[in-house]
């Protein structure tokens, strides 16, 4: 039986001769990365559990969340990581280098068939070169540093084939947004996606990076491009060695196969709140206060080149701030050499040093309360890029909108531009600290909280402005502080409560705090129809019970009802109604880690 790309890579990095979806594999990791976000927690785990560094040559830090060092807590964490790196001979790609995932490709550390893990939830961007990349929490990364490998459940594979001719005005970002429009945030949840078709074969590395970067927003484990000759030559030049590319077998089995006509793709933007909430460019004026070009999705040289082409000889609209952040320092230098930096500066743009920028709280790209932004980022969850509203678009649309002052395509920029007034709103931050729960029973009884929402992301669970917190006991007070309608959850929840929610719970970031905050409150379990892939791993590794149950709504529960959960059998019954349903049982690995009170 043939294997897909992800299955072939897992076999190459394990003691298996074949794998199938659902198989749990110990995967040898070629590049083991911690960022300045999460890095300090990785170091803490290494020290707390007396772990060794299995191979310093394959272990590295990338400081890309706060490359300006503008936040005192980030600066302290970076310094802690630098000292640890010196002690153990670990490579540091410091604040002058750029986004870690791009560096892995640029430095030849990731290429077709290789494996990498990072505290970056967009590590699956490495699918652009046919590599296995995964974002993981700090416990997973510490385990990879200490053992050189991590356990991984083989995902099902999906094959998407583009048919038709790609319209000339459709950019890579438009392709990603059209895929989100078609599949949403959970149709491809947990899949490894492979991309095929003539339109795919003709895509260069930069376009592949943009599309792979948004696999996380589709709920996918990874989006893999079989490398073409252009990508293969680039990777070999960076790795300075011959690479044997990994392709799927001709008789590989896919759980899902879809044909998508790329000729029907439209120029799209995402409305604030959800990347998959896409619309065509609106006819009515949506005024903006700021614009951002950058992120791991659109901080490449062609992105800056297309923005410079549109902005050349023009000015950013009065009252609008345009912020631009190249993905890596090499991109920055090349943009300077080609004259793009001068054009962008002359147009009135603020250009920062390379890094993650708007997606991370520590660099330019954040917006304020009431501010309307248009961004090339991959996420626009509430609070992700600041306290305002964020629309997602291609670099071309962002550049044109910065000139016009409202969202517009490059061919519809008006000659005379009015400005939009800024509206100011206030926001209150709730605080509460609760001791961490310690008992780990296999039979759980508790009062339920019904939160009937799908795609609750980790920014809604635990906002990124609190990411520098490393003490679990301080995290509970911020739980659901960024989820509309549930801002008082941390005040009203009681130890022993159980959360019941919808599909794709924990979508988005790799932050461990989104699990630990529930433990700090004494929440005993979360029952959801499905979970985000990284969130699932983090919860299992933290010995926090999460239970997948597609039929949980059959119990017809309301907030305040009580249920019983048997973690060994997966049976859930309503104490008040006496109905019983079957949820997914704990896997052997989940039960082992749970019984051990955690990964370590």
Primary descriptors:
25 strands, 600 residues, 3 domains, Aconitase, domain 3, 7-stranded mixed β-sheet, single chain, alpha/beta, Aconitase, domain 4, 19 helices, 5-stranded parallel β-sheet
Strand and helix map with partners:
Layout: H1 5-12, E1 24-28, E2 31-35, H2 36-48, E3 59-62, H3 72-88, E4 91-93, H4 100-106, E5 115-118, E6 132-135, H5 138-147, E7 149-153, E8 157-163, H6 172-183, E9 192-196, H7 198-201, H8 205-213, E10 222-224, H9 229-239, E11 256-261, E12 268-270, E13 278-280, E14 290-293, H10 295-298, H11 301-311, E15 321-324, H12 329-338, H13 340-346, E16 350-351, E17 372-375, E18 389-392, H14 395-404, E19 443-451, H15 458-461, H16 489-492, E20 498-501, H17 513-521, E21 525-528, H18 533-541, E22 546-548, E23 562-566, E24 571-574, E25 580-582, H19 588-595
Parallel strand pairs: 2-3, 2-5, 3-4, 5-6, 8-9, 8-11, 9-10, 14-15, 14-17, 15-16, 17-18, 19-20, 20-21, 21-22
Antiparallel strand pairs: 1-7, 12-13, 19-23, 23-24, 24-25
Helix pairs in contact: 2-3, 2-5, 6-8, 11-13, 11-14
Structure commentary:
Helix 18 links the parallel strand 21 and strand 22. The strands form 6 sheets. This protein has a 7-stranded mixed beta sheet. Strands 4-3-2-5-6 form a 5-stranded parallel beta sheet, with helices on both faces. It has a 5-stranded parallel beta sheet with strand order 16-15-14-17-18, with helices on one face. With 600 residues, it is of the alpha/beta class. The longest helix has 17 residues.
